[in-house]
Design brief:
Blueprint (H helix, E strand, L loop, with lengths): L1 H34 L11 E9 L7 H23 L4 H14 L19 E7 L4 E8 L5 H11 L4 E3 H9 L14 H12 L17 E6 L5 E7 L20 E3 L3 E7 L1 H6 L2 H12 L3 H12 L5 E7 L4 E5 L3 E8 L5 E5 L1
Parallel strand pairs: 3-4
Antiparallel strand pairs: 1-5, 1-11, 2-3, 2-6, 5-6, 7-8, 8-9, 9-10, 11-12
The structure holds aspartic acid.
């Protein structure tokens, strides 16, 4: 009898120990499930593309001049690529790349901007951050050395997106952006181009046959965190009327970024604006499920007409697309682990 009672007690003890062990383990497992975060895929390929304007460039361009363009594109690319490769943000990469191009008088942005019908330089720029869905832009600047940096400050520090003319200059007064005399932007080659355009009443010396004075600059990038940013800077179009605003500072036309793609345009601003081009590319991707290249082809070859514009874009996966229907576009690109591209013609 005693034996039976002892064996019963042992069984009871074993069952209760096993039960509490299983109970404890189930709590541990449950806690592990709560504490272990769902792992986001961290491996993100960075990519960057830049342009120095689309238009028509004769294939007979003097070799020495061609070399200067290629060298400038190469140096600009290296600036953005270094930032991204070291884990920096696409916002910094885009701003610094565009600043470099704004300093180079070969391009129609910052120093080297084209002339208005009044013989002046009025600069436009925009930047958009697809992560924050925020943007900053300025138009009609006359004394800001790096319009892209003012655009970034507008995005980050103001409650507005776009400042124009005197208002933009006044906003700049409250910031630390570098200022220059307006003469700083005038370079002789652009002045001569303007005189020719002005004498012939040409708007921008444009057509695939006679070539227009191009050189707007832009940069798009995705960094290792997947943040997409687009930036564009320009003097606009040669002989533009006083107060004319082009596509560049119009968010969604010349500059756009969201969580899937970043786009920067160059070319005939009015045509780019009428097609709300940069946003059109992004929405084509989003709503049709098309690839970056497919959406780029739709925009450049179906929507727009020959001779009108060129675009650069990168998507979240680090894919790059650069296309123009004008015959040529100064451009360069690189992605993590990928080849470097520097090109002018097709
Ligand atoms: N898109 C610029 C504008 O219309 C000019 C250019 O890209 O060459 O202002």
């Amino acid at each position: 009898m005693l034996k039976r009672i002892v064996s019963f007690l042992f069984t009871l003890l074993f069952v209760s120990l096993a039960g509490s062990f299983i109970f404890d383990m189930s709590i541990v497992v449950a806690q592990m499930a709560v504490k272990t975060p769902v792992q986001e895929p961290m491996e993100q390929r960075w990519a960057l593309a830049l342009h120095g304007g689309a238009g028509y460039v004769s294939p007979n361009m003097p070799e020495e001049r061609k070399k200067r363009y290629m060298a400038a594109l190469d140096s600009a690319l290296a600036i953005g690529v270094d930032i991204l490769d070291q884990g920096g943000s696409s916002l910094d990469a885009v701003e610094q790349t565009v600043r470099f191009l704004e300093d180079n008088p070969l391009f129609n942005a910052g120093r080297g901007a084209v002339f208005t019908s009044e013989g002046k330089n009025e600069l436009d720029a925009a930047i958009m951050d697809g992560l924050q869905m925020n943007a900053g832009a300025a138009t009609g600047l006359t004394t800001v050395k790096h319009p892209i940096s003012l655009a970034r400050i507008i995005m980050e520090e103001s409650r507005h997106i776009l400042f124009a003319g005197d208002g933009a200059e006044q906003f700049a007064d409250q910031t630390t952006v570098e200022r220059v005399e307006s003469e700083y932007f005038r370079v002789p080659a652009r002045y001569e181009a303007w005189k020719r355009a002005n004498e012939s009443q040409g708007y921008f010396e444009s057509s695939p046959n006679n070539g227009w004075k191009m050189g707007t600059v832009g940069c798009v990038a995705v960094d290792k965190t997947g943040r997409l940013v687009a930036g564009t800077s320009t003097g606009g179009m040669t002989n533009k009327m006083y107060g004319r605003v082009g596509d560049v500072p119009i968010i969604g036309s010349g500059t756009y970024a969201d969580d899937q793609v970043a786009v920067s345009a160059t070319g005939w601003g009015e045509r780019i604006m009428l097609n709300v081009s940069a946003h059109r590319l992004a929405s084509h991707m989003r709503y049709t499920g098309a690839s970056l290249n497919e959406s780029m082809y739709y925009l450049v070859y179906e929507l727009l007409n020959e001779g009108e514009a060129g675009f650069i874009a990168v998507d979240r996966g680090g894919n790059i697309s650069m296309e123009t229907n004008t015959g040529s576009m100064f451009r360069a690109s690189q992605s993590e682990g990928g080849e470097k591209t520097i090109a002018i013609w097709k």
